Amino acid sequence: MTMTEAKMMCMCFLLVQLSITFFVFMCCVGNGNARITSAFVRSEFPSVDIPIDHEVFAVPKGYNAPQQVHITQGDYDGKAVIISWVTTDEPGTSKVQYGTSENAYDYAAEGTTTNYTFYKYQSGYIHHCLVDGLEFDTKYYYKIGTGDSSREFWFQTPPKIDPDAPYVFGIIGDLGQTYNSLSTLEHYMHSGGQTVLFVGDLSYADRYQYNDVGVRWDTWGQFVEQSAAYQPWIWSAGNHEIEYMPSMGEVVPFKSFLYRFPTPYEASKSSSPLWYAIRRASAHIIVLSSYSPFVTYTPQWLWLAEEFKRVDREKTPWLIVLMHVPIYNSNEAHFMEGESMRAAFESWFILNKVDVVFAGHVHAYERSYRISNIHYRVSSGDPYPVPDKSAPIYLTVGDGGNQEGLAGRFRDPQPDYSAFREASYGHSTLEIKNRTHAFYHWNRNDDGKRVPTDSFVLYNQYWTSNEGSWTQKKHHLGDLFGWTAPY
Fold this sequence. Notes:
This protein is α/β, with parallel strands linked by helices. It has seven helices and 27 strands. The chain has helices at about 5-30, 180-190, 210-230, 255-260, 300-310, 340-350, 465-475; strands at about 35, 65-75, 80-85, 95-100, 105-110, 110-115, 115-120, 120, 125-130, 140-145, 150-155, 165-170, 195-200, 235, 275-280, 285, 320, 355-360, 365-370, 370, 385, 395, 420, 425-430, 435-445, 450-460, 485.
C-alpha cells in the first residue's frame, strides 16, 4: 500500500467516524438525551424603563390625533380585525375607513368609544372598531382620525384556513418598556413574523403608583404601535395585568388591560376576554388565563373542554396553546407556580395532541423535551415527568426585556425534561411550512444584535406518525447542523 493510499483510507475512516458521531448526536438530541444550559452571560442594557420624553414614546402631532394604534384578530377565522386607538383632546370619530388601495378607502366601519379612571388618572378616549367581511390574503390600508390629524396604516389578512397554508408567528412575552424591550421589538420587526403571539405581562405599569400607572400604559401603547398597528397581536394576560391595588382604591382585576386590549372571545363562545381561541392560516390557537379560575366546572374549564372538540386538524393541523405561567420550568424564579394548571389541563394537551405550549412569566428562555407527568395518582404512578411522544413541547419565552431584569438562577442539576435554557433577552418565531413540519427559532438580543441561538424542526403531532417522522428526520439531516434538532 502506498503512502497516498494509506492517507486516503485514513481520511475515509475519519469521515465515517464523524458521520456516525453526528448521527448519534442527532438521535440523542431528538430523543431527549442532550440537555444544555447555556453558559452565555449577557452584558445587558440597564433594566430601567425608557424615559417618558424619549422619541419612542412620541405622540403624533395634530389636534386629537389618534395614538397607541394596535390591531388584533376580530373573529374566529381571520377575516376580521379589531382596530384600537386613543384620542386625548375629545372623543372624535370612531370610524375606520379602509380599502385595498393606498389612499383609496372604499369602505367604512363604525366603532365605539370608552374610557376609564385608575386612581385619579383619567384615560384618553379609547376607540375599538371591528372591521369584518375581509378577504383572505389581502393587503388593506386603513385611515383613522379626521382632517390634518388623520393617520394611515395597513395590514395583511392571513391566507384562508388550509392545512398547508404557510405562516410565520412571532412569540414575545414579558416585554415592558426598557431599552432591552426596544431591542427585542426592533429585532422582531426584522424577523419576518406576520402575527405576534403575546404570552402576557405587557407594560409593567403596575410597578408604578398613582397616576403614573395610567401614564405608563399610554407610553407602552405608543411604544408597540410601530408593530402592532400593522399586524395583529394576539393577547394573553399575565400577573402584571391584574393591578389589584387596594391602597389606591383599585380592586377590579385586569381593569386597564380589558379597557385597552379587546379580544375576539365571543367568536369562540368564550364567556371572558381572558380566554378564547382563534384559527389563523393552518393554526388553531388557544389562549388560556393563568390567573382566572380553571379547576373543574369553572367557566374556563368548561369552555376549554368544548373548544378542544371544535379543533379540526384536517383544516388547522397546528394546535398551539398560550398561557402566562409555564407548567414546566427549571428556573428558581416561579418554580412550580404552574403546577395547578398542569394538573388541570396536561392530560387534555396530550389527549388532543397539542403541538407546542408557549408561556412567559420567567424572565429567561427554556425549551423542554416532549414529556408528561399524567400518571401520578397520589398513591400510585410515576411522580415525575417521563418521556412522552404524545406530549407537546413547552417553551418559556418570558424574556422580552422588562425592568425586573433576567431570571439568571436555574436549578442545578438541569432536570431531564429541560432541553435548553439560557437567561437572555430575545424573541421567538414559529415558521409553519405545511401540515407536517415547522421551523422554530429563538433569537437572543446580544448587545443590540439579533443572534439565532436555539432552533429545531417541529413535526406535527397529528399528521406525522413515528415512522413518517423518522423518515423525514433522515431526509432533513443535512439541514440540521448547528443548534437545530428534530422534534
